[in-house]
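Notes from the 1:1 (GR / supervisor)

We went over the backlog. Supervisor wanted to see one worked example end to end before approving the batch request, so GR pasted a single chain during the call. The sequence is below; no edits were made to it. Supervisor asked that the structure be written out right there so they could see what the output format looks like.
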Amino acid sequence: MKRPGNSDDPRDIARDVAAVGRISAVPSLLKLVCQNTGMGFAAVARVTDGSWTACAVQDDIQFGLASGGQLDVRTTLCREARAAREPVVIDHASRDPVYAQHHTPRLYNIESYISVPIIRPGGDYFGNLCAIDPRPRTVSDPRTVTMFKVFADLIALQLESEDHQIEVENALALERATADLREQFIAVLGHDLRNPLAAVGATAELMVRSSAEPQMVALGTRLRATARRMSKLIDDVLDFARGRLGSGMGIEALEVPDLASYLRDVVAEAREANPERGVTESIAIDRAVRCDRGRMQQLLSNLLGNALTYGAADRPVRVGALIEDQVLVLRVANEGEPIRPENLAMVFEPYWRPHNSKPGGGLGLGLYICAQIAKAHGGELTVRSAADSGTVFEARLPILLAR
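Structure output shown during the call:
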């Protein structure tokens, strides 16, 4: 996980102190450091350019620094280790040619010192594993330095694991919150919007049936059409929410002995709603099939609506359905301006609409839902389009035939 560099914000410091505190192995590592080196004080320190904070401490010499305690980073040698990203090791400070006059050993009255950088796997500098003692100790031994480096690497890996665990927990919490919002969203669409819309539709129907005034009948007819259109939009968004945000498009596959008649009903409804347009059909399904009848009607209705919207007004839309090699094939074809080649791969994406879409049309979910219905039946929906042959949407569904 990519992290920004440590900051001196008190909240970030508290977070990192707590993270080290959750690593159960750290106290044992610090005890081993003191036992194996004879050093009286060991710590895991969080080090930045501006602060030094003890995250975990083993204090056998009453140095007086506890977890969460801070030192002026300018008075520490961890600052040098951070700048060089290399260990700083001193066996006997008062005799060391480099550190005999250094302010840190003199300020804290220490003779032996070791500080090894703790660097996360991604390269971020966390701090240092360090130890001090007022007596000289041989800590420059390669085995001792290697031990410190191994322990520092283990701490870095554990910190990374802690961050990953927190990231996973946050993602799970977000997923739960998203699931709750999704359920609320579906509930609002399925209930809170449908109920008032049903009232609007009933009012429109009453205006059409009971009024003797042509103007009121026309108004009721328009209101009824608007209510139906809104209901269709709600259905589309519900299907999208369930399919895209939920567990996929749900179907209830049952044996349908007369699917052909139900498909013809959809064609008849399209003809009634578009009396000025030509719709031809050739439906030859002569056996029972296992499918979700309502979804199959929805699939054909959406494809027909799309063809009537974008097809040439003076040319008929052609509907075909038949069984080919145990596969149900459903085709809807129209003539007119073809779909651009670069757009063919986009037509089944949600919310995508072609450049020549009319204002106030659908949400761009119809074809996406068609593709999901085909997928839920174990099949697929494809499209081909050319100026000379028109646009053809074809669903091939390997629907199990009833015995």
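Supervisor's comment: The chain has a mean pLDDT of 87.
Batch request approved.
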